[in-house]
């Protein structure tokens, strides 16, 4: 698995981290130059040449510590009087959204270039960016059904199959 992951993600070497965001608990990262795509409803949007969609634990770190991590999405961005009413899925309401915006706006996020990609045999992934920032992905589930995926990597503007990493291996779907 390690060799297939590292071989597939070599395409990122030398490309910039273009953007990041989330949809519910799926975090996405876009790499490479901006590309315009049209969806099935005829709407256009700008994406990176490559996308990484993560549905397991992840973090962005540098030598001083963790900058932002997946569990931050369950913490309010600002103090709230009633935690029961906190809706983590509201865009911008959680700590992850706020810290990710800050990271991308600062020099650390904007213009970061991928310098190296490392993987292991259980699907963990480390994408090293310039100035010693790393995006680290670590699968955190032992489920093995066809619907449980840790992450996927694909070329945004082509019809090529996605590299999908699940417990027990990876496949092209």
Question: How large is the radius of gyration?
Answer: 16 Å
How many distinct helices? 2
Overall geometric form: globular
SSE-based structural type: mainly beta
User: In what order do the strands lie side by side in the largest sheet?
Assistant: 1-2-5-11-12-13
Strand content: 35-45%
Low-confidence sequence ranges: none
H/E element sequence:
HEEEEEEEHEEEEEE
The termini sit apart by 15 Å
Give a quick account of the main beta sheet: strands, pairing sense, barrel closure. Answer: 6 strands, antiparallel
Indicate the percent of residues in helices.
10-25%
Number of domains: 1
- How many distinct beta strands? 13
How much is the average pLDDT? 92
In short:
By secondary structure, this protein is mostly beta strands. It has helices spanning 2-9, 95-105; strands spanning 17-23, 26-31, 35-38, 44-47, 50-54, 57-62, 65-69, 114-119, 125-129, 133-138, 151-155, 163-166, 169-172. The chain has a 6-stranded antiparallel sheet, covered by helices on one side. It has a 5-stranded antiparallel sheet with strand order 7-6-10-9-8.
What features would you describe in this structure?
The protein is mainly β and 173 residues long. It has one domain (2-172). 11% of the residues lie in helices and 39% in strands. The strands form three sheets. A six-stranded antiparallel beta sheet has the order 1-2-5-11-12-13, with helices on one face. Strands 7-6-10-9-8 form a five-stranded antiparallel beta sheet. The chain is globular, with a radius of gyration of 16 Å.
